[in-house]
């Protein structure tokens, strides 16, 4: 697994011919990462993305 890009709240990794996007619990506002993470933010964003990918694939 190779790190391709890292931002303030997400990382992107190469997994062969696939990409893995990791959403963290960190939050940023006005280009500043705030000191207190939001619990389960990454899990919620991942679940929301998975739902949309499934919905769009079925359309």
The coarse overall form would be: flat
SSE succession: EEEEEH
In CATH, what is the homologous superfamily?
Phosphorylase Kinase, domain 1
Distance between the termini: 31 Å
Supply the helix-strand structural class: alpha+beta
CATH architecture: 2-Layer Sandwich
Strand content: 35-45%
Instruction: Specify Rg, calculated over alpha carbons.
Output: 13 Å
Low-confidence stretches: none
**What fraction, in percent, of the residue positions are helical?**
25-40%
Q: What's the total helix number?
A: 1
Number of strands: 5
How many domains, as an integer?
A: 1
Mean pLDDT: 93
Query: Strand arrangement, largest sheet?
Result: 1-2-3
| Biggest β-sheet strands, sense, barrel | 3 strands, antiparallel
Question: At the first level of CATH, what is the class?
Answer: Alpha Beta
Write the CATH fold name. Answer: Phosphorylase Kinase, domain 1
Report on this model:
This protein has one helix spanning 41-58; strands spanning 2-6, 10-15, 18-23, 28-29, 32-33. By secondary structure, it is an alpha+beta fold. The chain has one domain: Phosphorylase Kinase, domain 1. It has a three-stranded antiparallel sheet. Strands 4-5 form a two-stranded antiparallel sheet. The chain is flat, with a radius of gyration of 13 Å. It starts with a strand and ends with a helix.
């Amino acid at each position: 697994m190779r790190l391709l890009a890292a931002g303030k709240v997400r990382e992107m990794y190469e997994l062969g011919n696939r990409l893995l996007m990791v959403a963290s619990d960190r939050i940023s506002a006005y280009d500043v990462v705030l000191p207190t993470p939001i619990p389960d933010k990454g899990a919620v964003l991942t679940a929301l993305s998975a739902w949309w990918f499934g919905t769009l694939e079925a359309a």
